[in-house]
UniProtKB/TrEMBL annotation:
Database matches in CDD domains: ABC_Org_Solvent_Resistant
Protein name in the entry: ABC transporter ATP-binding protein
Start and end residues of each stretch annotated as Disordered: 247-317, 326-345
Pfam families xref list: ABC_tran
Origin species: Intrasporangium chromatireducens Q5-1
C-alpha cells in the first residue's frame, strides 16, 4: 500500500537563486500524480528533495508520520527504503547485465540468498515485459527497454512510493504509450504512490489522478486531473493545452510588451477532457474516479466532447495488452505493427 506525502511550505535555493518557494501539496496515498512545468522550473530538484537527496531551506516533508527535513542520516536512510526511483536514462550500470542491474539493490540492502534474489529479479523483469533479456547489457538494448529495466530495479524492494523522472524522454509516441499503460497497471497491482515528472502533455492529460504545475518559482496549481484540465488559470490553461497565448514565453515568462500585444486576442477553446487511461485487465485502481465526477461535484461544465472515447484516447484493450507486454512483440496501442520492443514478425 502506498503512503501519503504531505509537503508544506517547501522552499529551495541554490545560493542567490530561488528554485521554488512555499510549495504546499499532498500526494494522496496509492494514487498517480504528475508534476509538470516549463524546463528549468525545478521539477527534478523537487524529486531529489522529496527523497532526501537535497535538503530544503524551509518547509516540511511528512511521510509515514516522519518529517524528512528533520531526520538524522540513519533515520533518513530507513525512510528512503519506502522509495523506488526511475531516473531519466534508467541509470543502469553499463558493465552489468540487466539481471545484475536489477539485483543490485537486493544485494546491497538485504541479506537474501542468491536463489531468493533470482526469484525476485525474474518476477520484476516479467512484470515490466523484459523476461528473457536478463543476460543482455544496457548497451545492447533500446532506450525503452532501458527505461523498463530501470523500473524493474526500482521495484525490487517493493517500494510504497515511486518517483519517476521524465519516463518519456527519448521515447517515440508508441513506446511512451506502452510505458504509460505499464505505470497504470503497476499502480493497480502494487498500490504504491506514484509521482511522475514529465513534459508529455498526452501523458499528463490521460494517466494521472492528480496534476501539479511548477512555474515562476512557485506551485501554480495542484489537484485532481479534471480540475486542471478544465481550469481557466492562464498558465495552467496555456501549458496543459500547449497554447502560445499566455504568460509562458520562449524562455520562461513573457515580458510586458508581449503580454500587451496579446491583450484582447481570443483564446482558443479548451479541448475536450479525454477519458483517463484504465488498466489493461479492467481492474479498478485506488485513485480512479468516475469520468466527470469532479466537474459535477464542483459545478464545472467540461469542454464539449469531454470523456468521449475516440482515436488514440480509447480505453485500454483489456487483457490482450498484458499478453503483448509479456511477449514484447505485438500490435501497438493504435493496432499497428509496432510492439513494446520492435516490429512484429
Amino acid at each position: 500500500m502506498g503512503v501519503e506525502i504531505a509537503v508544506t511550505g517547501l522552499t529551495k535555493t541554490f545560493g542567490s537563486q530561488t528554485i521554488w518557494r512555499d510549495v504546499t501539496l499532498t500526494l494522496p496515498a496509492g494514487e498517480i500524480s504528475v508534476m509538470l512545468g516549463p524546463s528549468g522550473t525545478g521539477k527534478s530538484v523537487f524529486l531529489k528533495t522529496l527523497v532526501g537527496l537535497l535538503k530544503p531551506d524551509r518547509g516540511s516533508i511528512v511521510i509515514d508520520g516522519k518529517d524528512l527535513t528533520r531526520l538524522r542520516e540513519h533515520d533518513l536512510y530507513e525512510v528512503r527504503k519506502l522509495f523506488g526511483v526511475l531516473f531519466q536514462d534508467g541509470a543502469l550500470f553499463g558493465s552489468m547485465t540487466l539481471f545484475d542491474n536489477v539485483a543490485f539493490p537486493l544485494r546491497e540492502h538485504t541479506k537474501k540468498t542468491e536463489a531468493e534474489i533470482a526469484r525476485i529479479v525474474h518476477e520484476k523483469m516479467e512484470l515490466v515485459g523484459l523476461e528473457g533479456a536478463e543476460k543482455k547489457l544496457p548497451g545492447e538494448i533500446s532506450g525503452g527497454m532501458r527505461k523498463r529495466a530501470g523500473l524493474a530495479r526500482a521495484l525490487v524492494l517493493d517500494p510504497e512510493i515511486l518517483l519517476i523522472d521524465e519516463p518519456d524522454s527519448g521515447l517515440d509516441p508508441v513506446r511512451t504509450s506502452y510505458i504509460n499503460q505499464l505505470f497504470v497497471d503497476l499502480n493497480a497491482q502494487i498500490e504504491a504512490t506514484f509521482l511522475i515528472v514529465t513534459h508529455d502533455i498526452n501523458t499528463a492529460r490521460t494517466v494521472p489522478d492528480n496534476i501539479g504545475l511548477l512555474y515562476h518559482r512557485h506551485l501554480a496549481m495542484f489537484g485532481p486531473r479534471e480540475m486542471l484540465l478544465s481550469s481557466e488559470e492562464p498558465v495552467v490553461r496555456q501549458f496543459l493545452n500547449a497554447q502560445t497565448i499566455g504568460p509562458i514565453g520562449m524562455s520562461e515568462e513573457k515580458d510586458a510588451d508581449e503580454l500587451a500585444a496579446e491583450s484582447g486576442r481570443e483564446l482558443p477553446p479548451l479541448p475536450p477532457i479525454p477519458p483517463q487511461l484504465g488498466t489493461s485487465d479492467g481492474r479498478p485502481r485506488r485513485g480512479e474516479r468516475p469520468a466527470g465526477e469532479w466537474c459535477r461535484e464542483h459545478g464545472v461544465t467540461p469542454p464539449p466532447g469531454s470523456f468521449q472515447t475516440a482515436g488514440a484516447l480509447t480505453p485500454p484493450r483489456q487483457t490482450e495488452y498484458a499478453a503483448e507486454l509479456a511477449t514484447a512483440a505485438a500490435p501497438g496501442p493504435a493496432g499497428g505493427p509496432v510492439g513494446a520492443v520492435g516490429e512484429v514478425d
